[in-house]
Amino acid sequence: MLPIPRGVWAVASALESVEQAQHWCRHAAHAAALSVRRCVGTDPQILNTLQVLTSHHPWCALHGRGDLAELVAAQAVIAGIRSLPVAAYRSRFPKLMVGASTHNKTEAQDAIAAGAHFLFYGPVWDTPEKHNILVPRGLHNLTEIVALGVPVIAIGGVQTAAQVMQVQATGAHGVAVLRAARSTPLLQQLLHAWE
User: Fold this and answer.
1) Which residues, at least 6 apart from 169, have a Cβ–Cβ distance to it below 8 Å?
2) Minimal CA–CA distance to 99: which of 83, 77, 70?
3) CATH number of the domain at 7-194, please?
4) Cα–Cα dist 5/17, whole Å
5) What is the pTM of this model?
6) R_g (Cα) of the chain, nearest Å
């Protein structure tokens, strides 16, 4: 297994076609890793889209679809609230690294106990994706999750170089960005901020 990348991860969400995936890859080409969630279409359509992503980047994680992650030779699957649990992914897909999407310390501890190789944690800051669902967790809570001892990828509301540096200062392994990954200039700023 390849090591879990440090730095800025680009998150792709709801890509609907090979063309959209190719366009998105042009923006996110220099990210440390790709994270793909909310796949759209039939499984064959999703498979074609994912193959574009994995052919453009050496490290890719897929949220909630271990079967497709294995088929496209992705490096990891990420367990979430609506997916199979961490332990099921560990047993069914032993070639994949398994991450877990977590939002509080209890979820993080449970994921680690079940064998998660890494955690997504957030939202650290306010983000449209979580309005009326989750309140921002903040840097103090992120620091507590990092102290649990597995690689943590912070997510949620990261739009500035200053935020990237604040996340890095907590000891987090990386930061994942969704909106910023759609803008090549902004993503480049964030990548430079991590260096």
Assistant:
1) none
2) 77
3) 3.20.20.70
4) 26
5) 0.94
6) 15
